[in-house]
């Protein structure tokens, strides 16, 4: 993202924390101010400020880890200085004092603050996702309204293809709503996991710093004890060289021996304690490494969150595609409506053509060339029926395409389930980090008890030695200050935890209220949709019944007209046959060329008889067409389809 590209790496600042000219606290403040400026610039340029909180946490963790390394190196230098002091005796007192001052300067150096969590940024992300969900719900409602208006405009004779398309689009919209709700829940769970992981990480880092401070303090105490013992040895040597009282010298020698024994015991105890603390420090560093690993997991969660946002955008694009499909369906319904009107017009034209055919049948005896035109018109009607069948096949193809799109949406839903399982795995890792946190707390408690017991042992072994008593008093004071500091840190962490818990509760309450509001709106929309659907189905049924009655009336009138035509045609055929019989029974006049005239009349009568047979054949074809039309109408009543779509 743009923020990651513009933020400088923290390695340079972390490396100079222990050996630079300026204090580490000032450099951290300067780096933090620079990062804030970069963050503001990135928000103004690209609007992608949601990832800055995690990036700052990762950079601060790297700086803390390098500061820990510098402190450990300083502790190693102090140990070497102690070894040199032991070898050289009292000659290295100045070095010990310098090391003590150096440790005090380090202990007085400003403490690093734990990186703050990015809860406001996560809340902004949640609000943006809720806004996107509301926008998607609005679009879905608008899409349903468009579909309802399209259904209201659709004529009753369009068949079931339009209803199937509308049902498929409604199913797509419901799946999109469910997907958006699942994405919102997944984002909420990820935000909670992020907050838990960051809290554990910050606590582990702060405890590691506390252990480092304790190690430095113990080393300073050891150096102070060495200095006191060396000063006593110097006093003993001075007394021996001055030749003082033997009794005082013996007492002083005994006292020095006792102090040396106490010092040796104290050194051994402090060395053991130092080794224990170094071991705990190593464990704390390992915990810090686990915290860094948790930071990497946080980055992975942020990446997964950005992927989910991209999927939300994809779902929004799907909603837009569904809107485009809905508008296309509305246009298609309009085109179907125009086609129905055209078919009604063709139906009327066919009625007029039937009337014309009736007239042609009546005049069939006068013109034999009309049979060819009649056949052409019949072929034209068959071609129109075939085109209607082709349109029906196209509608079936489009239905199959919509079914494949439904399968694609189901596949997207399964991908959302896989993301939910990944979120559960991250939750389990956060629980393991919480367990490590409790282990570190237990080790710190054990360390405190160990220090208290060591103080008691030093009190018992010191006796009346004023130097040992001052060491013990110092240890007590430092132990009390450590206890007080620990209580203050614990109270601060507790207050911060309660504040975060209150914020989480407020956020949960707001989300619960918002969810209840959305659910109420959804229930209201469902009730309204059910009522509108029932009303629409009732209107469609009434319109279909009215058209069915109208078609039945037309069929009855056509049957009546056909019966009348058949009756008239039979009467005319009977009259022509009677006249032909009468003419055939007459004796034709035999003028000049009478035989030729007789043959001529016989030929004309044969042609007329053939024309009558052709007319009878055409009448039979019309009866067959009438039966076919009647069968289509009956099937249309059963299937509730237009009669011209019933084969």
Q: Overview of this structure, please?
A:
There is one protein chain. This protein has 647 residues and is mainly alpha-helical. The chain has a domain at 1-105. Helices cover 89% and strands 0% of the residues. It has helices spanning 2-6, 11-15, 24-45, 52-88, 93-108, 119-153, 161-242, 246-362, 370-462, 466-585, 594-639. Helix 7 runs antiparallel to helix 10 and helix 9 packs antiparallel against helix 10. It is rod-shaped and about 190 Å long. Residues 1-22, 47-68, 71-79, 84-94, 102-119 and 364-371 have low confidence and may be disordered.
Keywords:
disordered N terminus, single chain, Myosin heavy chain, structural constituent of cytoskeleton, mainly alpha, 647 residues, 89% helix
